[in-house]
Structure formats: structure tokens, C-alpha cells
Amino acid sequence: MKKTNYSSMLQSITAVLSILLLSITSVESLLAKNIQVNVAASGGLDTTLRHRKARPSSRGDATAIDGSNSKLQLLVQERHVVLENSIVRVNLSNPEGLITAIQYKDIDGNLLDHGSAEDSRGYWDVVWGEPRKNGTMDKLRTTTFKVIVQNENQIEVSFTRIWDTSLKGKVMPVNVDKRYIMLKDSSGFYTYAIFDRLKGWPELSIGEARIAFKLSEEKFHHMTITDARQREMPTYQDRQKGQPLAYPEAVLLTDPVNPAQKGEVDDKYQYSTENKDTGVHGWISVNPPIGLWMIAASNEFRAGGPNKQDLTSHTGPISLAMFISSHYSGEDLAPKFENGEPWNKVFGPVFVYVNSAPEAKKDVFTTLWEDAKVQLAKEIKSWPYSFPASDDFPASDQRGTVTGSLLVRDRYVNKRDIAGKSAYVGLAPPGDVGSWQRECKGYQFWTTANADGSFSIQNVRAGEYNLFAWVPGFIGDFKHSTMIKISPGSKQNLGKLVYEPPRAGPTVWEIGFPDRSAAEFRVPEPNKKFMNKLYANREDWFRQYGTWERYSEMYPTRDLVYTVGVSQYQRDWFYAHVPRKLGNKSVPTTWSIVFEIKKILPSGTYKLRLALASATYAELQVRVNDQKAAKPLFTTGRIGKDNAIARHGIHGLYWLYTVDVPGILLRPGQNTIFLTQTRTSSAFYGFMYDYIRLEGPPSNVA
Ligand SMILES: *[C@@H]1O[C@H](CO)[C@@H](O)[C@H](O)[C@H]1NC(C)=O
Ligand SMILES: *[C@@H]1O[C@H](CO)[C@@H](O)[C@H](O)[C@H]1NC(C)=O
Ligand SMILES: *[C@@H]1O[C@H](CO)[C@@H](O)[C@H](O)[C@H]1NC(C)=O
């Protein structure tokens, strides 16, 4: 655990004190504005509040007068702690550290859902349990409040909960320290949490860790995830009245407040993004014209690396910051701690940003979204933040940089090394090749390489890492052979790194593009009965509800047959290998790849590279030229729990298999490879392919 900060302990305020106004604004300037400081009355409202409406609402006005209106103050009540600057006011429950209200300038009321109970408006939460047992949801109600920093530029408060063995089985065996920071003149607040497990504590699995906000239903109707993904959302009541579909998260809207949304499907998983794209998302209110945004300047604290997908914002209105979850991955992404295993991790800081547009402005949505993106860019520029007071959050000078360039060597593609253009390159805790996509206890630092393969990974915390990479256009995973040790201020140039992707011979044929996604395959036109109108364009169809069901409609009796040289994968390779619905039953499906080979090398070994973009409780069996063979040439066995088919993802976790195909199994002329998905107890069991390639025996190119 961090070193104890005695000066901040001295500043600790115990909750039993009655109202105490701790204003940074000097008493003189308060008096000058004729605001009285009330330190005695218990249960009463603080006076700055009553005067709030009378205050000029814009910083500009105030500064013009005396430069002193950019106040920053902390109010500690018996049951609440309020952080306030000239723009935003945040009300936290004391000592639980739940966010009960966010207020903005002179706008009336709470931006969070005031109709919800105080513990259901804004909170950190986890789902925890003993490994292999069902989890318990815990809103991390803390027991001690402390002031950590209080000066004219910053307030930082801490809400902690300390674990001891008397709490075994009842409380997650982790010390929790939730921090809230307000800076002067900042249009929002920061929050982060330090999780700390000491040696000797009982075993634990954490299924989910996040921050959740339930926003004001009256105000927030318009949700924005990306430039293209934004819409007027149904209400929570619309969902309640609707008809749950095959997964209860998917609801057909039968009687929505907005009649135009009738017949649409609402499902929170339709708004997921990859970690690398989750910098900013949020909600917009038209009247008053304000936006509330969740901004993360870094993903270093999110589990699973850059391509892990997770929820963002969804109907409620709900806004989330996800840190740990099994979404699109399965329980491998739930960190598990053995009996006695220590752990320390900082989640965040994330910035909760509030902005506003002039009433007169026509395009409120664009104005606020563009401004939110500008704010994200500013946050990224000041990352790693210098202001969090916890020693567990290292500042910039405590971090290091790793540079280098990545080349790909595949002599069957190019005689020269190929630049690792757009490669994902990252540092993650030491592990096997590809382990980063399941890594969920430590920190990960990723970047994408430039066109020439050069990369720079900045702001890396001190520690030991492996350098991993994967390159769009090539199968497999790169792991640099030597361990990388980052010390404060270190700058390491690794020079040229060469990735040799799996390859044993020339390409006989290939299907798809190796990029860990099934997006390039045939995603069927959505069923008109289950539309989300936001996703009308082809590139978004995989986000629609029910696309998997279309397999049975498109291939009612005969399974998919792909003929090399005739078929096109964009048109003829269905995006998900699922069972077929036959009456009330679900039956296994066998896809055929038909191809010609003129000359076979019977003594040679051909290699079938099977790159999977997703797997859910499915088994893939491979047979060559004999569909009925009792024993398959190869089986994956039952693999995968990423559930990406049901969750409208176009990928989950990545799997790569190589199947040796002895030349004697092939014949001159037409051959067929049969791919059978055998597991049928659910319509959602299946695979998504990323890419398939057949390689001939080695030739002397290499
Ligand atoms: C904080 O919220 C509580 C509960 O809604 C309320 O009683 C209290 O007055 C609030 N404090 C301030 C300063 O707004
Ligand atoms: C765990 O949850 C599942 C699904 O909700 C339930 O079927 C099962 O009985 C639960 N098991 C235990 C041990 O509580
Ligand atoms: C499907 O199941 C229902 C109820 O179990 C049964 O009544 C019906 O006959 C079945 N239909 C077919 C085609 O098997």
C-alpha cells in the first residue's frame, strides 16, 4: 500500500463534526460578496448555496469584476460532502462516497436521476466472489472520509474501506480508496480508485468493476458514442413496457414514448466499443442545452488490451466507465487471486465532464459533441495527470518510454521485410505469446505503429513487461524475446524488431483478411422486425439484433459451400458459424471449402491456418475429403465464452489453430475441407472466423 501521507491525515475531517464550511475562497472575498460563512448551524444549508443563483454564471463575467469568482470549495456535512467550483457542484454521500448529485452552473436540479435512491445515481461498483462461485454486487460503500488535498487550485477527497478477516465472506477482500478531485475552473471532476489486497488475504475473483451513472431522465435523451453512433434513445420505461427477446438485454419496443421508435430493438450491447475507442461518450440534453461525458485519457487501467470490447452508454439513461468485465471475452477476463496473493491497482482517473451550448445555437448535438472531443484531446495532452495525490498514481517523471520499429518477415509474401504498418504494439505484464488479451490484473500500454512500423509507447509505469504486437494483414502474435524493465524516466529504443508470422509454405488459397474481426464477411441484411435504425448502413449490420438467425433462412436445408476461385468471401462466407434451426431443434452445421489442386505432393504436409475472431461454447471439427469420417482430422474441442454473437460484436477473443493436412489426404483435382460446428444447445453457440489459409508444403522461396 502507499506510504501514509501524514500531512493529509492531519487534514482529516471526521464525519461526526456538524457542518463545517471549508472554503478556499478567502473569507474576505466571501464577505466582499456579502455571503456569510455558516459554520455553526447543524443540518442547515450552507449559505453559498442560497446565493448560488445570484452569482454570475460565467467565469468571464466574474473575473472581469475582481478575479476572485473562480472559487473552489469543500463543504463537509454530517452525511454529505460537497465539492464545488464556479461551474460544477458534486454531492457525495458521507462516508459511503456515492455520487448523489451533479449540478451545473445555475441549472436547476440534479443532472443525475434524482428519483433514484441516493445509492443508485452515481457509484463505483464491483461484482466479486470466490472463484467458481456466483458473484455479489457491491457498490463499494466506504466507511471513512478524509480530505487529502485542499488548496486554492485543487480539492481531493478520499473515501476508504479497510478489510480485515472479520469481514471474510461478507466483504470483498480488498482495501478500497475512492478519490474525487475537483480543480479550480474545471468543468467537471475526476475520480479514481485504488484497490489494494494484502498478502495472506483469501482467494477472490472480480467479475466486473466500473463506474455507473444513472442520469436525469427528464434531461438526457440523446446519446453519443462516436461521430456516427448517436441517436435519440428510448426511455427506461419504454424498455420496461417492451418485449424481451432471446436475451433479456434485447427488447423490442412495443409502445415507446416516441412513436417513431416503435418496432425497434434496444440493447445496451449495440453500443459497445473497443477499449482503444472509448475515450469519450455521453449524453446530451436539449433543454437545457448541456452534455455530460465520461472521458478517459488513457486505457492503461482497463483489462484486456486495446481490442477488448465493453459497454459505454445505454438506455436508462446510463453512462459507464468499464474497467473489468467478462463482456466479449468470458470469465478469463475476471481477475482471480489465489489465497494470499497481494494486488494493488489504480483504476482511472476518469474525467466526468459537463458542457453547455448557447440556447440559440441550432445544432446542440454537434456543438456539444465536438466540444467533448476537444476536451478529450486536452485530457490526453495532460496525461499522465500531475495532480492526483495518491503515491499509487505515478506522475510523468515516474514513467518511461519505449520506442522501436516493427517489421514483418514473410518470405512467401515479400522477399524483403515489410513495415509493420498500423500494428498494435503494447507492453503488458509478462506472459506467453498473446497473453495480453486475457490479462486483467496489471496495466497495459498500447499504441499503433506508423506506416513505416515505427512506434513509441509513452507514459509507461515502472515495472517489468513483455512487448507484444499484432499486425493487421498477418496472422498470429508477436512477443519480443527480452523482458522490458521500465524505471522512472527511462527511455529505451529497441531498434528493429522482426515478427515472423506462422508460415510454412506458399498460399494455396485464403479466405478473409487477417485482422481479428469477421466484419469483412457476409453480415446479412437485418430483419425489418428487429431494426435499430441507427445501424441501417451495411458496415454496422453486425450490431443489429437477430443477424445470426438469418443463417437458417439463407441455408434452410444445405449448409454453406465456398468454392475457391468462384465464391467471394464478402458475399458467400457467413459471418458466424452457428447451428441451424430445424423445427424446434438446433442441428450441427458443416461448411465446405471446395478447391482444386492440380499436383499434390503426397509426402508433403499442407497446413490449414484457422484464425478465429470469436468462439462461444463451440467445437470446430475439421475433415478432409470425407465428411462422414468418424474421427475428424482435427478438433478444437469445446472452446470460448465470449458470447460475441449474442452481444452483436464482430469479434471476441482471438484464436489461432494450425492443422497439419498430410498430402495423402488430398488428391489431384477437386478437394473439400469440411468445417463442422458440433455444439447446438443454444442458437448463440458458434464461431466467427477471422481468416483461413491453406499452405502448400515448403517451397524453396524461403
Ligand atoms: C447533498 O445532498 C443531500 C441529499 O440529497 C442534501 O440533503 C444536501 O443538502 C446536499 N448538499 C448540498 C450542499 O447540496
Ligand atoms: C449461480 O447463478 C446461476 C444463474 O443465475 C444459478 O443457476 C445457480 O444456481 C447459482 N449458483 C449458486 C451456487 O448460487
Ligand atoms: C415444437 O415443440 C412444440 C412444444 O414442445 C410442439 O407442440 C410442436 O409440435 C413441435 N414442433 C415440431 C415441428 O417439432
UniProtKB/TrEMBL annotation:
Main location: secreted
Rhamnogalacturonan lyase domain boundaries: 421-494, 507-694
Annotated signal peptide: 1-29
CDD domains: RGL4_C, RGL4_M, RGL4_N
EC number from the UniProt entry: 4.2.2.23
Coiled coil: none
MF term (GO), any: rhamnogalacturonan endolyase activity
Keyword annotations: Lyase, Secreted, Signal
PANTHER family membership: RHAMNOGALACTURONAN ENDOLYASE, RHAMNOGALACTURONATE LYASE FAMILY PROTEIN
Protein name: rhamnogalacturonan endolyase
Species whose genome carries this gene: Papaver somniferum
